[in-house]
Amino acid sequence: MRLYTLNMLSVRPIPLLADNYGWLLQDEAGFTGFVDPAEAEPAASAVAASGGRLDLILLTHHHADHVAGTDALRARFGAKVAGAVADTHRLPHLDHALAPGAQLAVGRHAAAVIDTPGHTRGHIAYFFADGPILLAGDTLFSLGCGRLIEGTPEEMFGSLRRLAALPGESLVCCGHEYTLANARFALSLRPNDTALKARAGQAAQRRAAAEPTVPTRLAEECRLNPFLLARDVAEFADLRAHKDRF
Ligand code: ZN
Ligand code: FE
Fold first, then answer.
1. Per-residue pLDDT tens for 215-235?
2. Residue 178 Cα, ligand 1 centroid: separation in angstroms?
3. What's the CA-to-centroid distance between 39 and ligand 1, angstroms?
């Protein structure tokens, strides 16, 4: 599986459940983090194969397909757990209850905590300037975005705008493998976009080889992702409603 090493902070997708990704983070000293452990066993295997150390679990939001493996991993490896302070009541026990704007130390590196309501009220994203790496959870997917389960179009549009303002070379590490379905929707809107067709073809090849289609680069998402191309809240809201029925 591809290993992305950037300024000595590496990040790697770990397939979990049917279409979730957890993300294994490791720094030059072996400090190891795991983002969104949907289930414990495959996450524990990935940790064991990477040195057997798990220091920190980073949670983006409270849904079971992002947190269900947390307590078992904590018990097995002694990892600390970080998540949004706003969702303390519905997340696993937090050692680091994070407010938007906080900095979370991950070994020798630091993640900025970005408020990204929309999919859920307390959703947060983590951004490492070292990398740069964006752990986007269920806010931003390749060619798509999360469903508005708790938030408003205004909130989600604002969240996507905050993420889109990050450096274009950022690796976008998202919570699900939804790229092929998202590509079909995006192509229905812009059937003649050659860059979009190329991305859809590349993603299809990767899936055929049982490889992840992510991470992608934020600059590519800003060019191709219909939800990042929406110019205002009304356009975004229409697009999201259209995708929900697609
Ligand atoms: Zn979710
Ligand atoms: Fe999810």
1. 999 999 999 999 999 999 999
2. 13
3. 14
Q: Count how many domains the chain has.
A: 1
Q: How far apart are the C-alpha atoms of 16 and 38, rounded to whole Å?
A: 6
CATH of the domain at 21: 3.60.15.10
Q: Which residues pair with 134 in a beta bridge?
A: 127, 172
The pTM for the full model equals: 0.96
Q: What DSSP line would sit under 155-179, residue for residue? A: HHHHHHHHHHTS-TT-EEEESB--H
Ligand 1 geometric centre to CA of 111 (Å): 21
Which residues surround the ion ligand 2 when the cut-off is CB under 5 Å? 65, 138, 175
The whole-angstrom separation of Cα 74 and Cα 173 is 22
CA of 91 to the centre of ligand 2 (A): 14
From the CA of 192, how far away is ligand 2's center (Å)?
Answer: 31
Structural domain including 132 reads: 4-245
| Å from CA of 138 to ligand 1 middle | 5
Question: Which among 124, 119, 117 has a CA at the least distance from the CA of 85?
Answer: 124
Beta bridge partners of 141: 144
